[in-house]
Amino acid sequence: MRSLIGFRTLVWREIYRFFSVFTQTITPPLVSSFLYIFIFGFSLGQRIEEVHGVPYLTFLIPGLLMMYVIEGSYSNTSSSLFISRWANNIEELLVTPLSYFEMVLAILIGGLARSLVTSTGVYLVSLFFVCFPIAHPAVVIFFLIFVSLVFSSVGMIVALFAEEFEHLSLCTTFVITPLIFFGGVFHSIEMVPAAIKWLTFFNPMFYMINGLRYGMLGVSDTPIFLSAAIVLALFLLLFSLTVYLFRVGFKLRK
Amino acid sequence: MARPAISIQSLVKFYRRFKALDRVTFEVGEGDFFGFLGPNGAGKTTTISAVTGLANYQDGKVEVFGYDVRRDYRQTRALIGLVPQEFNFDPFLSAEQILVFEAGYFGFSPREAKKRAAELLDSFDLSKKRKEGYKRLSGGMKRRLLIARALMHRPKILILDEPTAGVDLELRHRLWEFLRRLNREGITIFLTTHYIEEAEKLCSRIGVIHEGRIIALDPTETLIRKMTADRVELSLKKPLLQLPAELAALDVELKDGGAKIQFEEREGMIQKVLRALYEKGIEIERIDVRRPTLEDAFLKLTKKSPIEIKS
Predict the structure, then answer these.
(1) Count of CB atoms situated within 10 Å of the CB of A19
(2) Where do the structural domains in chain B lie, given as residue ranges?
(3) Nearest to B236 by CA among B273, B272, B184
(4) Min CA distance, B209 vs chain A (Å)?
(5) Mean pLDDT by 10-residue block, N- to C-terminus, for chain A (254 residues)?
(6) Third-level CATH fold of B229-291
(7) Could you say which of A2, A5, A20 has the minimum Cβ distance to residue B92?
């Protein structure tokens, strides 16, 4: 039980951290999602015909949600761990009796919590514009949780390799954001030119966005089980790698 | 010595090709007040880091109360409180939260943690600053907060890495008193310090590390006695131009332009010198005997100049 208290304390510390700077962590996604939905969905979207038999604005919402889930979880763990390394207070954690598994899982849950808070906020914002029944709630919950955990792990790994703050945003600018956009936040694979369509199938974000879209709308560009399997495999791989890096003390111990 | 609280056997640590610890071996007994001395870069912090789990090492064995620090790291870490050299507080938390979260990591319930934090904030005179972030605390307050944090989970061993560096004299003396009290209450203390006087006043046993090797390990008094002798200084009525041959053969030095003679008192040296002076008709005005200090022993061991050591 004592060990669980330690684990819970670290989870709470991670949640407390992002709430204590909510103007940097919670508010921006709500504002930008409002702008995306208003400009792309509500204004421009009315000129676009239905996609997979649903109005464009409705089609857009799952993609946007997944975008904020990915960005929120990645930003939370990458900044939390990198700041801890930079301020050296990671040592405060490393001398506690928490196991490396618990340390990693607690920090990941912090990332998960932030992405759930942001995605709930973005969903509430979307209700001002469009309201539709959720097709498969269990699928929605699965993708929200496991995609958050995947990108929380990515954030931790990047934070361990990074030498400067700049490296965290380089990964967002040059890897995560392009893959999200090409993964189908705003479009269906049917709208992609045939010559480069095959590239989409190598983009993991494509499966994540379509998985959530299936859960919310019941439509998808790819089979749901393939999407779920890819997300689960990525989670297991990246979570194990993160625990391994903590266990060997990669850039954590001298 | 009581059962070992810390046991380090043949510890080897490399930083790339640089051998930072070279077969370091020593034990710290339960209840000891152990001083770990060495010049800058000698390997003090690296040794502490190996014990607390902040450094990997290539060879050797480190145990805390019989638990291996690598295999049983959860048990060993629960037994140790670490006061690091640098401030490493969580930048998002207040002084009180720093303590409460720390206790939580060690399994204290929120209620227990808050109670313990209030006790320690009070003991360290930090109650009025409990809501402040650590950046708003003075250097001395931050130092006290570091110690309070290390004591939150009631460790059996307190490891302090240069705890009084940059601390004013009054606070240093208060910390000394506090550490003595903790030691009397049964906590094993492992202290590294730059202030040799500090080690001499506080520590019952001393280990000296130099270039990654342990070069001395003794009770403080024994170490001073073994390495040094009383220093005798004779002030002469009339300065000498040079030492008479009888005195020159006795390993004495002429100082202050011939006004003083200095030598170490070993094996009846004082009698020999006084006899030689008497026979030569050289008159003495005053005799001073200086008791050697740990600093003298330390200088002799490490062959460093005092400036290098105190830097």
Answers:
(1) 14
(2) 229-291
(3) B273
(4) 19
(5) 83 94 89 87 74 85 93 95 93 94 96 95 91 92 97 97 92 92 85 83 94 93 94 97 95 89
(6) Alpha-Beta Plaits (3.30.70)
(7) A20
